[in-house]
């Protein structure tokens, strides 16, 4: 055996023992409320499939039509021969949907974030990032040469201190998730915009969990917080509520988007979004206000119902219920693991999150509600939670 092999085996053993080991479950069915794993039928309560579109028959058919027309792939980046009519149409639609001048597509929101900070910020600039921001924001910021400030989660006093400290910076950008995925809580975007205006900073929001979910019309955290026109840059994904396959975008003022088209590396040097993904994403946005209002309504009703029922069993929940991410707190690390296993045995698929993914003593089972669930699915999950209550310490 090569020495690097035993070295890696040692490192892997550490990962397995660390609580961050990720076991992949192999799903043999379509994605949806009901899935099959190892020949066992389960109710899925851990997807980001908020509107139930990912495995839907309607999008599958839409995708077939799109492939028929536009083909499978482009075999090119955007600026060589990878831009089809459908890409431009989707960019226009994204801009209109989220009320920005323009938008630019990426293969993922991870790429949108990876290609953002380094392109727009340089040495002498400053970036302010919530400590609970998504890995893709963290990595995107790592690539840029601006001075980095990391503020305690949603702590506006600290953010203001840091903005003052960086008063000499050429350009300042505050970066935040719209929805923080571990607690399902939302950014204090109104306060962030106030501070940004006071200190002359840009506001960047990654609303991957909020787009299509939050706000009276599903436009996300910007709509929910009433800050339209005050956010400079929005990044988000088509991989959650807005379809569930993949693809991301950045929406912003015209000159920011144009600048990204010229300089953003994941955009310039990675293949364009597959036409089928662009076409189906366009379909979702174009019909969002008609086809999916019922789904958004049942998502809200399901979330309220589930929270109310499970709290009545004596469980502690995190978040305020504005988002379908519903963390059921176990606090104890072992309890989170044992309870998620017990639920799995009962046909309910949820994931437990323990340290270091969440702070010590803040272990939880994260339940994610979907419009694909029926009331009966919710009741079955609730019954399972009720039955395993005594597993808690
Ligand atoms: C899921 C998520 C991403 C990644 O989106 P992809 O399109 O799958 O790359 C980025 N940011 C946040 C906040 C997310 O929740």
Short description:
This protein has 393 residues and is an alpha/beta fold. The protein is built from 17 helices and 16 strands.
Brief descriptors of the model:
393 residues; alpha/beta; Aspartate Aminotransferase, domain 1; seven-stranded mixed sheet; 17 helices; globular; binds pyridoxal-5'-phosphate
Account of the protein in words:
This protein is an alpha/beta fold and 393 residues long. It has two domains: 21-53 and 293-391, Aspartate Aminotransferase, domain 1; 57-290, Type I PLP-dependent aspartate aminotransferase-like (Major domain) (Aspartate Aminotransferase, domain 2, 3-Layer(aba) Sandwich), CATH 3.40.640.10. It has helices at 3-17, 57-70, 78-81, 85-97, 109-114, 117-120, 135-142, 156-165, 189-199, 221-225, 254-263, 265-268, 275-286, 288-291, 293-312, 333-345, 375-387, and strands at 34-37, 40-44, 102-106, 126-130, 147-151, 172-177, 179-180, 185-186, 202-206, 233-237, 248-252, 316-317, 325-331, 348-349, 351-353, 363-368. A seven-stranded mixed beta sheet has the order 3-11-10-9-6-4-5, with helices on both faces. Strands 12-13-16-15 form a four-stranded antiparallel beta sheet, with helices on one face. Strand 7 (179-180) and strand 8 form a beta hairpin. The longest helix has 20 residues, at 293-312. It is globular. The structure holds pyridoxal-5'-phosphate. Pyridoxal-5'-phosphate binds next to helix 5. Pyridoxal-5'-phosphate binds at residues 108-110, 134, 136, 177, 181, 206, 208-209, 237, 239, 246, 248.
